[in-house]
Amino acid sequence: MNRMRLVVNNATRRLGAMFPGFFPDAKHDHYKDFGYPAALTFSQLYGMYSRNGIAQAGVNKTVLKTWQDNPFLLEEERDGSEVGEADETTLEKQIRQRFDDLRLWQKLAEADSMSMVGAYAGVILRFADSKRLDQPVDRVTGGLNGLVEIIPAWEGQLTVSQWDTDETSDGYGHPKMYQFNEAAVDDKQQPRNFIVHPDRVVIWSKNGTVHGKSILEAGFNDLLTMEKVSGAGGEGFWKNAKSAPVLEVDPEAKLTEMARMMGVPVEELVDKMNDQVEDWQKGFDKLLMVQGMEAKTLGITLPSPEHFFAIALQAFAASINMPVKILVGMQTGERASKEDADEWALTNMSRRTNYVIPNIRALVQRLVRVGILPERDWFVDWTDLTESSMSEKIDRASKMAETNQKMGTGVIVFTDEEIRAVVGYEPLSDAEKFANEPTDDETRDALGTKPKDTVE
Q1: For 7-11, 49-53, 109-113, 136-140, which range has the lowest pLDDT when averaged over its residues?
Q2: Which of 2, 11, 95 is nearest to 378 (CA)?
Q3: Is the pLDDT of residue 288 over 60?
Q4: Closest CA to 110 of 157, 47, 40
């Protein structure tokens, strides 16, 4: 009995391999069945980002929203939801100007986008310390001018060349040296290629290590599906518009005569006809010359690819926590709803707090350690992405004022200070409140009660 069950199970597995889907007990490799890669490499992820518009929009729109404006590096946390240039200290102003010269925030935003495509990105720091890049950093003189350049690097450009395998070392299990090869991703005329010490590298990823994960990984299969649907749809419509003809040979046709007219032997007649049909397919204005044959085309009914594309699009949007209408923009005249916009702002505020700001702090700590920045309780201040626009604030203040009017005389629901706070204004001082009120002398003049000057 057991032997018979074993034989039946083996037969079922073999049949399941031959006819996938017909036997429920058979194991399936859906990745293989659907043409998805079993494991993803950086080259595949980078290729998808470079050539797929949806993938690029998912990364770029996230970075553009996260870095909607540049943060401020403050010597300490201060009150107020926003700190502007007018409130800067002397050191903060010097830092802002130096960072502007280095385009530091733009370079960090670029590294941020690189880290979303790969498992991580690198921020290579070039210091004016007269040392090779493969040497450790002690102290850098010159203050802010000691930082010379910021080099964002893709995962494929910056790889670990040596690991720390000493169990007694503080850096056990961490990179001991990196290899930077600029041409590995961006092939320039004079690409840079050098060994770089970890003191000169800040890894930009969710956990600050090279063991991160690409944002495109979860939705990679959906991106492939969209490529298949759009590619098959485009090719299908083209083939349908200019399909290969089906040639029917007339029983009365003389193949020898046809070959003679075409100037080829009879045995090469088929190849000559193939060449003629291929030349005809290359353009809509070509003429197909046949003798003793009738050319017909096969009509193909293509299903609309929109529904199949939309399923994969929604799945990819869900994988990167982005509303579909924000991912693809306006479709059929529809804009992203207020709820979508608010949710998207919250998502990027969370990303700032848990992903971007910790990486900025790691960079600041490195600059403090090598002497570029002095030791302070450094604080990264950034505007609130969820803050209402000025038009929304004014609309809210107007509704508050209308509520006061509807309540009648003597009943105040919202004070003037509360209404001003809604639009971000400070309360008025007493002098400002009564600036337009007449003085006592002006009041007496208006009433004609001002005492006249007397002459003795």
Answers
A1: 7-11
A2: 95
A3: no
A4: 157
The CA–CA distances, whole Å, from 205 to 41, 117, 239 equal 17, 11, 45
Is residue 208 a contact partner of residue 366, using CB atoms and an 8 Å limit? no
DSSP letters of 258-313? HHHHHTS-GGGHHHHHHHHHHHHHT-TT-----SSEEEE-----PPPSHHHHHHHH
The rounded distance, in Å, linking the Cα atoms of 72 and 93 is: 10
Q: Name the β-bridge partners of 333.
A: none
Q: Long-range CB contacts (< 8 A, 24+ apart) of 306-310?
A: 308/225, 308/229, 309/226, 309/229, 309/230, 309/233
Cite the beta strand spans of 97-241 per DSSP E: 121-127, 147-153, 158-163, 175-181, 193-196, 201-204
- Structure-block tokens of residue 349: 């505020």
Q: Round to whole Å and give the CA distance between 324 and 306.
A: 14
434 vs 9: which has the higher pLDDT: 434
pLDDT, mean of residues 104-114: 97
Token code pair at residue 288: 């197909």
Whether the CB-CB separation of 147 and 127 falls below 8 Å is answered with yes
Q: How far apart are CA 122 and CA 318, in angstroms?
A: 27
What SS3 string covers 18-60? Answer: HCCCCCCCCCCCHHHHHCCCCCCCHHHHHHHHHHCHHHHHHHH
Q: Are 163 and 147 in contact (CB under 8 A)?
A: no
215-251: pLDDT as tens digits: 999 999 999 999 988 877 776 666 666 666 665 555 5
Contacting residues for 376 by C-beta, under 8 A, at least 6 apart: 75, 76, 368
Query: In the 8-state DSSP scheme, what is residue 413?
Result: S
- What is the per-residue pLDDT across 119-157, written as a single tens digit (0 to 9) for each? 999 999 999 999 999 999 999 999 999 999 999 999 999
Our CA angle for 17, 20, 26, nearest 5°, is 65
> Tens of pLDDT along 84-107?
666 789 999 999 999 999 999 999
Residue with tokens 């720390």, as numbered in its chain: 164
In a 3-state reduction of DSSP, which class is residue 194?
Answer: strand
Provide the token pair at 80.
Answer: 């107020």
